[in-house]
User: Fold Beta-galactosidase from Sphenostylis stenocarpa.
Amino acid sequence: MKVTHILSVLVWFFCVYVPTSFCANVTYDQRALVIDGKRRVLVSGSIHYPRSTPEMWPDIIKKSKDGGIDVIDTYVFWNLHEPVRGQYNFEGRADLVKFVKAVAAAGLYVHLRIGPYACAEWNYGGFPLWLHFIPGIEFRTDNKPFEEEMKRFTAKIVDMMKQEKLYTSQGGPIILSQIENEYGDIDAAYGPAAESYIKWAASMATSLDTGVPWVMCQQADAPDPIINTCNGFYCHNFYPNSNSKPKMWTENWSGWYFSYGGAVPYRPVEDLAFAVAYFYQRGGTFQSYYMYHGGTNFGRVSGGPFIATSYDYDAPIDEYGIIRQPKWGHLKDLHKAIKLCEEALIATDPTVTSPGPNIEAAVYKKGAVCAAFLANNGTSDANVTFNGNSYQLPAWSISILPDCKNVVFNTAKINSVSMISSFTTETLKEKVGSSDDCSSGWSWISEPIGISKADSFSKFGLLDQINTTSDRSDYLWYSLSINLDAGTQAVLHIESLGHALHAFINGKFAGSGTGNRDNAQVKVDIPITLVAGKNTIDLLSLTVGVQNYGAFFDKKGAGITGPVILNGLKNGSSLNLSSQNWTYQIGLKDEDLGPSSGSSRQWNQSTLPTNQPLIWYKTNFVAPSGSDPVAINFTGMGKGEAWVNGQSIGRYWPTYAAPSDGCTDSCNYIGAYNASKCLQNCGKPSQSLYHVPRSWLRPENNTLVLFEETGGNPKHITFTTKQIGSVCSRVSESHPLPVDLWNSNAESGRGVGPVLLLECPYPNQVISSIKFASFGTPLGTCGNFKQGGCSSKNALSIVQKAIVCLDTSPSNKPKYWNVNNSFWELLS
Ligand SMILES: *[C@@H]1O[C@H](CO)[C@@H](O)[C@H](O)[C@H]1NC(C)=O
Ligand SMILES: *[C@@H]1O[C@H](CO)[C@@H](O)[C@H](O)[C@H]1NC(C)=O
Ligand SMILES: *[C@@H]1O[C@H](CO)[C@@H](O)[C@H](O)[C@H]1NC(C)=O
Ligand SMILES: *[C@@H]1O[C@H](CO)[C@@H](O)[C@H](O)[C@H]1NC(C)=O
Ligand SMILES: *[C@@H]1O[C@H](CO)[C@@H](O)[C@H](O)[C@H]1NC(C)=O
Ligand SMILES: *[C@@H]1O[C@H](CO)[C@@H](O)[C@H](O)[C@H]1NC(C)=O
Ligand SMILES: *[C@@H]1O[C@H](CO)[C@@H](O)[C@H](O)[C@H]1NC(C)=O
Ligand SMILES: *[C@@H]1O[C@H](CO)[C@@H](O)[C@H](O)[C@H]1NC(C)=O
Ligand SMILES: *[C@@H]1O[C@H](CO)[C@@H](O)[C@H](O)[C@H]1NC(C)=O
Ligand SMILES: *[C@@H]1O[C@H](CO)[C@@H](O)[C@H](O)[C@H]1NC(C)=O
Ligand SMILES: *[C@@H]1O[C@H](CO)[C@@H](O)[C@H](O)[C@H]1NC(C)=O
Ligand SMILES: CC(=O)N[C@H]1CO[C@H](CO)[C@@H](O)[C@@H]1O
Assistant:
């Protein structure tokens, strides 16, 4: 009988490269970055510092290091640091120096992607909006006003890093920097000036004299000495523009972002590992995951339009800072396998052959060192003879052979643990009855409909919203009075460049229109009733993140630019209102209630209005106990923004759902991935849970303020905490992993033979029970295992006995159970 053990050989390692010699110039040659005189094979991961909190940084960085990451890269977000020209912000989540130092403290390197254009699904691509108003400016082209500002900011950041001695040439962690970003994808639109701009950017960056190389990503014509690098889901076919430059991959999209109104993309780890292994197989020596931790678009930083508040990205570390398994663990195993090849990879270029259809072998051999990669880029399994030995290669997979003989890792075979995370819902516990605060429950303030501020102004015609608000607020009121002789039914036709709008007639809500990620424009026809005499038409136009990508994205307008027409009047005629005398108000009357909680204001305690537009809500609450990450479930609310203790947790919009089709339950990793291949969450709200960082919460006496635009019932809001309750592990005889090779780096307790890895995600957890164990041919996936046709009767009790006693002391160190010790018992 052929028995496939579910228990087979474990791959584990705990050997992370720690840079030992700082204070060295960084250079490069055709193989790799050269640090302290030595070529390096490096794995990088993107973490954007403002998308988490300084309190979260050390833990996320440590988990990155534990996952085999050598370099952390981040963009630098200009509009975060210089919201007003000449006024800088480097505090809190914007404390770039503190972030770089936190990475250094963990012993990792930094790739500082200054840009300063970031893209990154970040508001206006990272540019401050005030740039747009500099006379004569043209963005991202050979234009003096733009170049002056770009140079000023780039130099400011470089100087700041130099003063803190953060470049590797000064003993710091920064080994690499980026100038511009993905310009090559759109530069054709800028004509011949694009080339001179890129030359200018290259020489400007080089002149800043950092002692470390600069890269430009997606820029085939990057001038020397700038290294042109690749971004994409795959980069094995990429080669730099000179054979004196190394092959580098600055953005490997570990998953994908999602938008309000869109489904949530996932990228299978087998495919991601395949892409990474293929890159190193084909001569790459530096690869970065975009994102390794995506995080959260707090406040109004998300771009788009319509980018969601969550920027989870299906990254190896999730939005809340919890490792995502098996993605994190499988990539960790991959990184270890690649590092075992480092000496061979830096010694020479690969010799690539094709021993069969869709099979590609790459051998790095110089003197005694030899490492090989065997790729099957086809869609069916294959057997390959290589160096006289036979190897099984699953479809769309790569095996890594650090000694050119033994396979230590195959990208399609996951030995890492899987986890089932769950959300525990708690109703909002209101703080009751202290004498200085009688607000048990919710209180509220109505936001006035239409013009209410003294700084409103009037103008004939319809104005572009971004030019008018300078993005100081999401909101712009367009207000008009018209006089009619007689009452009438009519249809109000409104056209807007986006991103959404609400119409009020004579102080009453009349209708809304919303664009989407593919087309932000709104065209609505709203049936209305007008009265004899004076009628007010109040249109609230709103942005949901300013455009961040594309040629001339900076000029893309928003708002109700018209026409606005009254159709279907009783006498059959139409009234074009577009060039009338409109009155404008930038922002809401009470826009500061969010950050300030309006402590000096009288909040109304009487009957709570529900399902009404334009209401501010406030409550006081007790934080969910414990230390698990916290989110607010906004199901029951419409659209708005929320603040906890004065900190904006971002825009919420649980009523904007993903399309009902286009998703898949089981995503086949085989074949080229793209962002629409493995979608989930169809027909459901794009985002209903919103992260509240623990460090923003006090045990009691927390204030939650919401601005609700469309209508909802805040009593339906719940808190949820995210836990990892269950962990699954699987080992299989069919995983051809020679334990010896791994054991040469092993920790004690592993021994030879199939080893099951067990690991709790949090330091203070222990394994409390075994829910399922099977030895034989079990079926299903983590959380839904079933016994197969062949199974051992004793498996559960043996595993219970072995594992529960293994795990008596709380620790998040991985534990190993050697299956061989119980092998005969299991078979009986
Ligand atoms: C770095 O390079 C500069 C000039 O190329 C040289 O003067 C300096 O000594 C180098 N520093 C180190 C630490 O090697
Ligand atoms: C797959 O591998 C074969 C053999 O090396 C190669 O000719 C082919 O270009 C590869 N296909 C892709 C999409 O990389
Ligand atoms: C590969 O070889 C194994 C063992 O000899 C055999 O069971 C399997 O069917 C072969 N697979 C393919 C795709 O030829
Ligand atoms: C915004 O203002 C700029 C100059 O201030 C002008 O060139 C541009 O056309 C305006 N954009 C729109 C969409 O109105
Ligand atoms: C039709 O009705 C509108 C609104 O009452 C009025 O402004 C307009 O003058 C009328 N047109 C004609 C042709 O009577
Ligand atoms: C309405 O008026 C605007 C501004 O005067 C004009 O551009 C537009 O073409 C008019 N639309 C119609 C349908 O008359
Ligand atoms: C435009 O409307 C505003 C507000 O109603 C009013 O104060 C102003 O006088 C109007 N301008 C003209 C030229 O009618
Ligand atoms: C509270 O709201 C009620 C109902 O809308 C209203 O009658 C009352 O005046 C409000 N009180 C305050 C203090 O605003
Ligand atoms: C959010 O709350 C709704 C009910 O209000 C519930 O149906 C949904 O499952 C919750 N979402 C999560 C992820 O817990
Ligand atoms: C994405 O992948 C799916 C599934 O493989 C395929 O049907 C679709 O055409 C691909 N889309 C693009 C834009 O390549
Ligand atoms: C609750 O917090 C508010 C705002 O921080 C503070 O003014 C108030 O004194 C606190 N009340 C109690 C009872 O701690
Ligand atoms: C800048 C860039 O390379 N964008 C690409 C990102 O990936 C999507 C999906 O594969 C492509 O459509 C973009 O062109």
